Amino acid sequence: MARVMVAMKARVRWIEGAAMLAEAGSGHTLVLDGPPEHGGRNLGLRPMELLLIGMGGCSEFDVLHILRRARQDVTACVVELEAERAASDPKVFTRIHAHFIVTGRDLSARQVERAIRLSAEKYCSASIMLGATAEVTHDYEIRST
User: Fold this and answer.
1) Which residues form a coiled coil (predicted)?
2) First to last CA, the chain
3) Which among 31, 52, 53, 59 is placed 20 to 30 Å from 82, CA to CA?
């Protein structure tokens, strides 16, 4: 069976200083900017912050989807991310840690751990891609409602 490639498009337009307007193919936009010491006015996300947020969103989406399919009664989910970058250019991520806080009723630790593992190893494109340069680790806590 032939694989179908999924195309994605985006456009980033310089506004002024270090500010840019990013437009996704889905029609959504956001402002990117840098700190004042780099010509920015701190009006938006930094591009590397956006990469980290993208990984968090991708992972959390997967975890929630997997837990719902496992009939887990999730009422809230948060992923807190911490990353370290190389000291010299290119300042790639060298370490990323994702801490999941999953809240719900009668949640199974085995199911939560499984969902996070499947996301990290099979489904989250962002996490797997960033894992090529960074050590990506995960942990979790379960809270009851």
Assistant:
1) none
2) 45
3) 31
Among all chains, which residue has been given the structure tokens 């985006």? Answer: 10
pTM of the model: 0.91
Cα–Cα distance, 130 to 14 (Å, whole number): 26
Which residue, among 57, 67, 76, has the nearest Cα to 143 in the 3D structure?
76
Q: How far is 80 from 120, CA to CA, in rounded Å? A: 15
State how far the alpha carbon of 49 is from the alpha carbons of 46, 92, 120, in Å.
5, 12, 19
What CATH number labels 47-144?
3.30.300.20
Model confidence at 8: pLDDT above 80: yes
The DSSP bridge pattern shows strands 29-32 and 135-144 to be: unpaired
Amino acid sitting at position 31 = V
Name beta bridge partners: 35: none
Instruction: Name the residue ranges covered by the structural domains of the chain.
Output: 1-45, 47-144
